[in-house]
Design a protein that fits this description.
Layout: E1 4-10, E2 14-21, E3 26-34, H1 46-63, E4 71-76, E5 85-86, H2 90-93, E6 100-101, H3 102-109, E7 114-119, H4 120-126, E8 136-141, E9 145-151, E10 154-156, H5 188-191, H6 197-207, H7 209-214, H8 216-220, H9 230-238, H10 242-266, E11 271-274, H11 276-281, H12 286-295, H13 304-307, E12 308-310, H14 317-330
Parallel strand pairs: 1-4, 4-7, 8-11, 11-12
Antiparallel strand pairs: 1-2, 2-3, 5-6, 8-9, 9-10
Helix pairs in contact: 4-14, 9-10, 10-12
The chain binds zinc ion.
Amino acid sequence: MGAQVLVFDVGGTTTRAGLFDLGAARLMRTERAPTPSVSNCPGETGARLRARLYGLMARLAARLGAETPARVVIGFPGPVDANGVALRAPTVWGAERDPEPVAARVRALWPGAGIRVVNDLSAAGYGFLRHAHDDACIVTVSSGIGHKVFLDGRPVVGPAGRGGEIGHLRVDFSADAPPCECGGRGHLGALACGRAVPDQAARLARRDPGGFARSSLAAAVGGRASRVDAPLLARAFRAGDPWATTLVGVLAAPLGQVLAGIHAAVGVERFVIMGGFAQGLGPAYLAPVARAAAASAWDLGQNWGLMLELGERGDDAGLFGAGRLAAREWGGPA
Ligand SMILES: [Zn+2]
């Protein structure tokens, strides 16, 4: 057995930990536990909530038999700068704006260990690269939307780590554009992912009440389109329901438009789409995204049907990618 790296994927709901074997280039064991967050620890103060995360990481490491790891990689759900300082973590710490020195706090847990802290989607992205110098855009479409552009095998996020946040790009400038959880309005994340489904369903039902009435979804929600959620939509879409197909097209359109913008900006030709909402809809989701992308920019012969793929690595995608990053940083097959 080769050297092992302790890897973490801190999520808004669940924190995962694993041992990644550099020699075998695979995850050997994994553990998981609920993340102490503003949503499941109401009344907890900011500093205590943060301390509880490190306590959880130590407990998960102990469950893996990794009390004194030599190397640790952490995927963190927010923008992270080059020194391992997290700028924000809304899914874990809510609206708090104080930067968190994650790398320094983890170093206090395991003095002497090599430590890397990166954005969680950056970590997952390493798992989808085909070789060490690959170009790709990793996109997650779940309860929110984010992306990371990898050029020459590295995520490009800018000098302060602010890149890779297309979910908060405004794409709807109308007066009644839906609000985004960040406080903005008309952002891609408010229009095109799982949490956008009820609002977009209600809007489409107002435009096409007859189509909605004929849909299997109308019966499932008692005629209240705003009760259509992502799982219901996925089921109807996979069953070929015409109105559900139209609604998925409405949701896919602004995403395709923004992906076309990324392609036009940097020329990347491989888009790996992951996340629960995309997985729920399945491969057929890619077609309306591709059509919208093709309609959003000029034609230089690029084939959007071949440029989009579903990233199917399941719940351990973040841990696996963190292990791949460790292999890049500290040797072993990448
Ligand atoms: Zn936003």
